[in-house]
Amino acid sequence: MAERATATCFCGTVQIEVPVEGDDFVGSFICHCTDDHKIHASMFASNFIVKQSSIVHVRGQEKLTRYSQSATISTGNTMSNYFCSVCGTLMYRISSGFPDMAIPRIGTVDDLTLHETKLAPKVEQFVKDRVAWLDPPQVDGLISEMGGYYGKFQENKATRLIGNKL
Q1: Cβ atoms of residues 78 and 96 within 8 Å
Q2: Is the pLDDT of residue 160 over 60?
């Protein structure tokens, strides 16, 4: 059975369980898009993609607040953001372009060793929006993409990654 991990918001109210390997785990990435600058109040986001059906809400699902918009999303898709309504931690996002996928945040995963191992990013996207003072990540085999990586390869690369159409 593929390894799974818990991910918890800052205050502990919301906890989910997600795959960190196997067929339900698509990949991990760093995103420098301007949308992530705003939503994280930071210069990048560290994320991973899982099949939405693989997320188990351990506790606090009723405390998640959804905020959706498309105005700043480069593809024009609607991005729904699921936040803890108590502390504001963004737990995951879901795009209308990939409705069967969820994008949790690496930093919410409780087992910190996974941040350095199985969840280490394989892709850096929206490099064109990376601030000049931030050095490129030092990750072996990292793929750098000027724009979006997963959306660009929706019919090809991402389909091969999970074995079916996103």
Answers
A1: yes
A2: no
State how far the Cα of 38 lies from the Cα of 40, in Å rounded to an integer: 6
How many residues are given for the chain?
Answer: 166
Is residue 106 a contact partner of residue 49, using CB atoms and an 8 Å limit?
no
Asked whether 56 and 7 are in contact (CB, 8 A), the reply is no
Cα separation values, 114 from 37, 72, 94, 110, 120, Å: 24, 31, 22, 9, 8
147 Cβ contact list (under 8 Å, min separation 6): 74, 125, 126, 128
Task: At 119, list the tokens.
Answer: 């969840």
Q: pLDDT category, 90, cuts 50, 70, 90?
A: very high
Residues 6+ apart with CB under 8 A from 65: 82, 83, 84, 85
pTM: 0.81
Q: Judge whether residue 165 has pLDDT over 50.
A: no
CA–CA gap between residue 89 and residue 108 (Å, rounded): 8
Q: Which two tokens stand for residue 12?
A: 């502990």
Q: How far apart are CA 118 and CA 20, in angstroms?
A: 7
- State the amino acid at position 146 in one-letter form: M
